[in-house]
Specification:
The chain has helices at residues 13-24, 77-82, 84-105, 138-157, 186-194, 222-237, 259-270, 294-300, 309-327; strands at 4-8, 28-33, 48-51, 67-70, 109-115, 160-166, 168-170, 201-204, 216-217, 219-221, 246-251, 257-258, 276-279, 288-289. With 328 residues, it is of the alpha/beta class. It folds into 2 domains: 4-170 and 219-251, NAD(P)-binding Rossmann-like Domain (Rossmann fold, 3-Layer(aba) Sandwich), CATH 3.40.50; 186-217 and 254-327, UDP-galactose 4-epimerase, domain 1, CATH 3.90.25.10. The longest helix is centred in the N-terminal third of the chain and has 22 residues, at 84-105. The protein is globular and about 55 Å long. Bound molecules: nicotinamide-adenine-dinucleotide. Nicotinamide-adenine-dinucleotide is lined by residues 8-9, 11-15, 32-38, 53-55, 71-73, 75, 90, 94, 113, 115, 166, 168-169. Residues 8-9, 11-15, 32-38, 53-55, 71-73, 75, 90, 94, 113, 115, 166, 168-169 line the site of nicotinamide-adenine-dinucleotide.
Length: 328
């Protein structure tokens, strides 16, 4: 049966790809986005679009919705250190208002975009959901606070919710891809070098205890991530995640790639030499961040089907070139 979902932040990178997947399987989608970091043209065809703030969700949310997928947030780690109040206000304040709107409308299913940044420096890898949470930035702290708020809402008011803690999201889904301003994610930054929009890529630290000395991260294809959201909704629909439960799942490939491996893969995919600048370590950058996705596998039946870094980079490259052609 067709379901109706509100997608907050559906004009952004991950939200637009998930909205497209929902539409493709026949669900009805309303995107709520204030375009603070998103783009109206990223709202997929077939979705209804409301240009508005999550803080005002009660204006639009009613009992005709089967659930909400909540992507809308600010997510720049560096900016959150400089302006923590901006992150508490939008990420925590926005979600408080959204939870009140869900309660008032009687909508009882929520999927939330949490993050690996809730864990901070891991004591052991791969990181499981029972690892200590000690975020090293206001961004990570704001997302952890929201996870706690959702847990309380489920226990007290019978919401069913799944928090998905993404590791490094990458790749593109056709014409939907990553466009952050400023860009801080490695793959799009290296692709900017290949496009001649940036002279070189900075490699922060070459003396980490990793095979080639550079940081290792877990890159997950955005389309694999989208499938996890659909499975989370289905799990709530068939009561595998019942009312009152808050399930937290890490989402990653479970295998890490070093900064140097990413740069080398971009060289192979694009045929561009990609000059590197060696820079000092950045404070708070852990050596290795790799997810254990066992919970998502066991509880949601999720398996990433695009674990190959070359394929992730090729999709991101096709999207970057699309933008270049349009900008030309
Ligand atoms: N991209 C990643 O690697 C990554 C990793 C971990 C977690 N996340 C989380 O996933 C979510 C989506 O990330 P993204 O990379 O797609 O970011 P994005 O900036 O592309 O998308 C966020 C969207 O939310 C909208 N928005 C922000 N505040 C709003 C508000 N108050 N009301 C309405 N709309 C609002 C923005 O306009 C934007 O379209 C975020 O919550 C982020 O914290 C992303």
């Amino acid at each position: 049966m067709t379901q109706r979902y509100l997608v907050t932040g559906g004009a952004g990178y991950v939200g637009s790809v998930v909205a497209a997947h929902l539409l493709e399987r026949g669900d009805r989608v309303t995107v709520l986005d204030d375009l603070s970091t998103g783009f109206a043209e990223a709202v997929p065809d077939g979705a209804e679009f409301i240009e508005g703030r999550v803080q005002d969700a009660a204006k639009w949310l009613d009992g005709s919705y089967d659930g909400v997928l909540h992507f809308a947030a600010f997510s720049q780690v560096g900016e959150s250190v400089a302006k923590p109040e901006k992150y508490w206000d939008n990420n925590v304040g926005g979600t408080m208002a959204l939870l009140a709107a869900l309660r008032a409308a009687g909508v009882r299913k929520l999927v939330f975009s949490s993050t690996a940044a809730t864990y901070g420096e891991p004591a052991t890898v791969p990181i499981t959901e029972s690892a200590p949470t000690a975020p090293t930035s206001p961004y990570g702290a704001s997302k952890l606070a929201v996870d706690h708020m959702i847990g309380g809402e489920c226990a007290a008011h019978g919401l069913a919710a799944v928090s998905l803690r993404y590791f490094n999201v990458a790749g593109a889904y056709g014409s939907l891809g990553e466009r952050h301003e400023p860009e801080s994610h490695l793959i799009p930054l290296v692709l900017q070098v290949a496009q001649g929009r940036r002279e070189a890529i900075s490699v922060y630290g070459e003396d980490y205890p990793t095979p080639d000395g550079t940081c290792v991260r877990d890159y997950i294809h955005v389309a694999d991530l989208a499938e996890a959201h659909l499975l989370a909704l289905d799990a709530m629909g068939r009561d595998a995640v019942p009312a009152g439960e808050h399930l937290v799942c890490n989402l990653g490939n479970g295998s890490g790639f070093s900064v140097r491996e990413v740069v080398e893969t971009v060289r192979q995919v694009t045929g561009h030499p990609i000059p590197e600048i060696t820079a000092a370590r950045r404070p708070g950058d852990p050596a290795v961040l790799v997810a254990s996705a066992d919970t998502a596998r066991e509880r949601l039946g999720w398996t990433p089907s695009r674990p190959d870094l070359g394929a992730v980079v090729a999709d991101a490259w096709a999207f970057a070139r699309l933008g270049q052609e349009e900008g030309a």
